[in-house]
Design brief:
about 350 residues; alpha+beta; Chorismate synthase, AroC fold; 4-stranded antiparallel beta sheet; 14 strands; globular; binds flavin mononucleotide
């Protein structure tokens, strides 16, 4: 079973990620992991805090040089912006602050923020790099792209940059929509026999687990509700690559809606919970939009879920064991899928 955990606070010494159940014999170059982390850190829309972070990392277990051994992999990401947690009794609306303070019985929102912050997603990307590489070596290509920013239903690099600049100058933030796709997935990953084995459900959990993601669709998604069955049957790609909770050999397409970043440079109305007086919750270093970075995080989260499903179907403790099984399955199912 492939599983992972992260630990660490955003201004603590380290973020830590542990990946367990990952096969031996997978070469994951340090430069590859660094490049993936760079995609998240340098994504358009990010704010001043990113200039502080360098995502310097160490791998302290589970690798022989740059190749996995099958033992749990530990990644340590050193935080450059280290500091003791401050004190704030003013919860920021739209964040974990208020519910987290109530839940853990503290008047200090900083203690909640330190862990709830999306800085944690750097550890998810570091671990996801291993899964992305495994997918790649097994012939599965996973990608992500932003398809909408704020009110712009489609974007290119220039229009996105202009819209981000406009929002930043206005002291505002933006949400958006991103897509994650996977090509080359063998048919039959996931399962129809139990609700929690359905691959769509597992991917939904991974996508909605990305901070700020509020909407999720597979294939035709919400638009499917307005189609007739005859119309839908004529467009099998609307299934988004999943039928009955399993991959069907087609391209997997997921779409997610990301809410606008709640941290506003001019402040959002809140209150000091100790005094009950109205106060502004100000986020000076906030990103203008999280959608580009969230897309990268989601790509890695999807890679982890898909790697887990591949390992469940094909088993094996090393890449050398798994790869021929996947190739053979593709040959076998490919012949049948060609008839459709
Ligand atoms: C990579 C990434 C960076 C983010 N950066 C910020 C930020 O700078 N400021 C902010 O207010 N929210 C930011 N967010 C969004 C918050 O983390 C998110 O809105 C918050 O966790 C509450 O959303 P939730 O209700 O979905 O958990 C970011 C999200 C991601 C994925």
């Amino acid at each position: 079973m492939l599983r992972y955990l992260t630990a660490g606070e955003s201004h603590g010494e380290y973020l830590t990620g542990i990946l367990e159940g990952f096969p031996a014999g997978v070469k994951v170059p340090r430069a590859y992991i660094a490049a993936q982390l760079g995609r998240r850190r340098r994504a358009p829309g990010r704010g001043a805090r990113q200039a502080l972070e360098t995502d310097v990392f160490e791998i302290t277990s589970g690798m022989d040089g740059e190749t996995t051994t099958g033992a749990p992999v530990t990644v340590l990401l050193r935080n450059r912006g280290r500091a003791a947690p401050g004190f704030s009794a003013v919860p920021r609306p739209g964040h974990a602050d208020l519910a987290g303070m109530l839940k853990y019985g503290t008047m200090n929102a900083s203690l909640v923020r330190e862990r709830a912050s999306a800085r944690e997603t750097a550890a998810r990307v570091a671990l996801g790099s291993f899964a992305l590489k495994l997918n790649e070596l097994l012939g599965v290509t996973i990608n992500s792209r932003v398809v909408g920013l704020g009110r712009l239903p489609s974007i290119d690099a220039a229009s996105a940059a202009a819209e981000l600049l406009r929002a930043r100058r206005a002291g505002d933030t933006l949400g958006g929509v991103f897509e994650v796709t996977a090509e080359g997935l063998p048919a039959g990953l996931g399962d129809f026999t139990q609700h929690d084995r359905r691959l769509g459900a597992r991917l939904a959990a991974a996508m909605l687990g990305v901070n700020g993601v509020k909407g999720f669709e597979i294939g035709g998604g919400f638009a499917l509700a307005a189609l007739g069955g005859m119309e839908a049957a004529g467009s099998p790609e609307l299934s988004g690559g999943l039928d009955g909770g399993m991959t069907n050999g087609r391209r997997l397409t997921l779409r997610c809606a990301v809410k606008p970043v709640p941290g506003l440079p001019g402040g959002a109305p809140s209150a000091d919970l100790r005094t009950g007086r109205k106060a502004l919750a100000i986020s000076r270093t906030s990103d203008t939009s999280a959608v580009f970075a969230a897309a990268v995080v989601a790509e890695h989260a999807a890679a982890l879920t898909l790697a887990a499903a591949l390992l469940e179907k094909f088993g094996g403790d090393s890449l050398a064991e798994i790869k021929p099984r996947v190739d053979e399955w593709r040959r076998k199912t490919g012949k049948l899928l060609k008839n459709l």
